[in-house]
Amino acid sequence: MGKNNTAAEPKNEKEKNDLMEKIVSLSKRRGFVFPGSEIYGGLANSYEYGPAGVELKRNIQEEWWRVFVRERSDMVGLDSSIILHPKTWEASGHVAGLVDAMTECRACHSRTRADHLIENHFEAKGEKISVEGRSEAELDEVIAQNKIKCPTCGKFDWTPVRKFNLLFETHVGIVPEAQSKVYLRGETAQGIFLAFKNILDSTRVRLPFGVGQMGKSFRNEITKGNFIFRTLEFEQAEIEYFFDPEAADWKELYDGWKNAMHNFVTTTLGIKAEKLRWREHGDEERSFYSKRTEDMEYNFPFGFKELWGLAYRTDYDLNQHMKFSGVDLSYTDPTTGKKFIPHVIEPAVGINRLMAMVMLDAYTEDGDRVYLKLKPRLAPYKAAIFPLLANKPQLVELARKIHGDLQKHFSVSWDDRGNIGKRYYAQDEIGTPFCITVDFDTVGEGDAANKNTVTVRDRDTGTQERVAIENLPTFLHGKIYN
Ligand code: ATP
Fold first, then answer.
1. CA 210, CA 342: separation in Å to the nearest integer?
2. Residue with the larger pLDDT of the pair 1 and 283
3. Mean pLDDT, to the nearest integer, of 105-132?
4. Of 38, 231, 305, 348, which residue is the least packed, with the fewest Cβ within 10 Å?
């Protein structure tokens, strides 16, 4: 054990696909992620987070909140509504602009995003192109010129490309009239601009400062997603960092955010830097109001893909909401009295996408052993407690007591089924960093020197040590939050 305990690095396409399949199957088997609405035959691009998955997802969320909101004195938090006034999305440009170009195969009726169809076609040939910003006619031309076939049925018979909006529409009230139409938010960021004035009026924030918000966003994604990478609803974590462009150098702030994002992914989430890269948006791809946009990309089994976006959005959003609402959203400098519209830098990420990365990155095979080498603070359960034998009341009773005591400090798990080997195997697969066993020594029926101590087995090395019961909380705390 422990001779090759580094995360698996897939070497070729087959290994990459295998890794994805292994994660999807482990997710279902061990209660991380289930296909959505499975008993009704499933619903594309939707998932449920099981008992282990919800813990992992929450841990990533909590880390994000801790690092970017709680531990920064220039940040405050917000939790705005999912359903906002519909004018929000006109002002933000999402009604006109959150659109994808789609085409349908006339033979098998499967729908696909034209940009994904083209990009995947070229990627399969080892070429990389980006068609963002191209018109429907231009996309039609690329598909026709390259005779790109339907990935589902292999035919070449596409309908003309047309645009469709990704915002989900619904109605407030019982009569679906035009005035009652609202949208489920397509991003969390707009809620921050709507609350900007209230935040200024109710707190002591001074520029530069940021507002962080995390919550569900919804997009009508039609391309079959890669597991939880792209879903209909997702947990988004966004920051609007407001500043005076005359008092601060935006490039410096921008680079500061790049470092903070990179640091979070590598240090807090434990991802290797070589799996990450930055990609700057070209003129065609970047929104007209943005001065710079870059994506941090992670090398997923399906290629380098956007993980986290960073955009300098100037004063566009606040200006738009001022125009559409008629409310003054300017900031007055308390020292100089200067009144102006602040500019913003926006780091935006999907927690579910972070979670997919974390699971793929942590998957480790060591001989017959499979384990998720998660950072202990991200692990769904920090420790699992076992009585050596389930039919010995003295062992079970003490193990139950230890479990109950540790539950007050950490998320912990319990297992008394099968033999110890099987229990280790199950805990390894969900990434539990420590397994604690109560044996006969513990209860004073074996080696007297070990009385009131338990065996603690380390997930990554497989090694075991004896720790006094009373020291367990401090021991675990030191190992998990070091
Ligand atoms: P993509 O090009 O992958 O669709 P995007 O550029 O539209 O992403 P943004 O609008 O910049 O994404 O959203 C910010 C972040 O939110 C993304 O970097 C990603 O992490 C996450 N995200 C966006 N759409 C989804 C989705 N459908 N499912 C999961 N996460 C998403």
1. 11
2. 283
3. 86
4. 38
- Is 244 near ligand 1, meaning CB less than 6 Å away? no
User: From residue 154, how far is each of 110, 158, 162, 238 by CA, in Å?
Assistant: 11, 11, 21, 40
Instruction: Give the SS3 label for residue 68.
Output: helix
Look at residue 5 and tell me whether its pLDDT is greater than 60: no
Better-predicted residue by pLDDT, 240 or 159: 240
Cα–Cα distance between 291 and 84 in angstroms, integer?
Answer: 27
At how many degrees (to 10) do helices 351-362 and 51-65 cross? 110
For 453, counting Cβ atoms within 10 Å of its Cβ (0-12 exposed, 13-18 middle, 19+ buried), the class is buried
Q: Which one of 234, 261, 279, 308 would you pick to mutate in the ligand 1 pocket, going by the greatest count of ligand atoms within 8 A of its CB?
A: 234
Four-CA torsion 280, 313, 269, 234, nearest 10 degrees: -110
Asked if residue 22 lies in contact with residue 363, where contact means CB atoms within 8 angstroms, the answer is yes
C-alpha 397 – ligand 1 centre gap (Å): 49
Residue linked to tokens 């003295």: 394
Q: What's the predicted TM-score (pTM) here?
A: 0.91
- Which run of H or E residues covers position 459? none
pLDDT at residue 201 in the model: 95
Residue with CA nearest ligand 1 atom 24? 230
| Separation CA 202–CA 200 (nearest Å) | 6
Q: Which domains does the chain have, with CATH numbers?
A: 13-94+168-363 (3.30.930.10), 102-162 (3.30.40.230), 381-480 (3.40.50.800)
Q: Whose CA is nearest to atom 10 of ligand 1?
A: 187
Sequence-ordered strand ranges (E) for 81-205: 99-104, 111-113, 162-165, 169-171, 181-183
CA angle, residues 150, 156, 158, in degrees to nearest 5: 80
Amino acid 4: pLDDT: 40
206 — alpha (psi -120 to 50), left (phi > 0) or beta?
A: beta
Tokens at 1, concatenated: 């054990």
Any long-range contacts for 387-395 (C-beta under 8 Å, 24+ apart)? 387/416, 387/437, 387/438, 388/420, 388/437, 388/438, 388/439, 388/440, 390/416, 390/417, 394/443, 394/445, 395/438, 395/439, 395/440, 395/442, 395/443
Backbone angles phi, psi at 25, to 5 degrees: -75, -40
Q: Does the C-beta of 306 come closer than 6 Å to ligand 1?
A: yes
Q: What is the DSSP letter of 86?
A: T
Supply the residue whose CA is at minimum distance from atom 22 of ligand 1: 350
